[in-house]
Amino acid sequence: MATRTQKFKTFVSEPMGDKDVTTVDGINDELGLKLAAKGFDKAYILLGQFLLLKKDHAVFQRWLKGAYGASPSQAQRCASCLTDWCYAFL
């Protein structure tokens, strides 16, 4: 089982609302700036992309790595965070 960071636990424990994209586990400030520059400035917008990709971890991770230069670890943590948030709130 993967280790869950405090950032992960905090994000998954409450509604997303209007949170910044950097509140998603795996998205640091540098990656957040790259995402925001292309319109993914809020967590719910990133979630929308995740849902458009049918919650497919592999496809979402490839998109995040290919389009924004996320590391494999960042992409995996982000996908897991969004998946667990979906289980809790959708």
From TrEMBL:
GO biological process, any: chromosome organization
InterPro entries named in the record: BAF, BAF_prot, BAF_sf
GO molecular function: DNA binding
UniProt KW keywords: Nucleus
Subcellular location: Nucleus
The keyword Nucleus is annotated on this UniProt entry: yes
GO CC entries: condensed chromosome; nucleus
Predominant localisation class: nucleus
Name of the molecule in the record: Barrier-to-autointegration factor-like protein
